[in-house]
Amino acid sequence: MGWVRGYALYMAWLVALVATGGSLYFSEVAGFIPCELCWYQRILMYPLAVILGIASYRDDRSVVPYVLPLTAGGAALSAFHYLLQKVPGMAALSPCREGIPCSGQYINWLGFITIPFLAFVAFVLISLLMWAARKGTD
What are the TM regions of this chain, as residue ranges (predicted)? Predict the structure, then answer.
């Protein structure tokens, strides 16, 4: 597992790039219009692709305290969004009052994988990799 610590910044950057590219694919190629919560998740993910790219290039592990609040907020928001989609009673809490409903599911792979689920996994993976990167400096 020691090799993960050495490459944690690069792997986190790769996850952020895939998540950013995936969200752009879904909206620009597949034509899925993002709901309000999707936009907030993008606001938290897109800077990570830039921040982690620069940190990877410079091998700068001091970015960990700046990245973790973005990933924690993104994971919490993605989890809430996922619950809106999968728990019928949560639909009343939806902040998406006009436009695209937050409870809509453009994809539903294997009965549980939706876009907010993918975002949640990405935010959690980046968080874990940042934790490993931080541990690599001890």
Answer: 7-27, 39-57, 64-84, 109-133
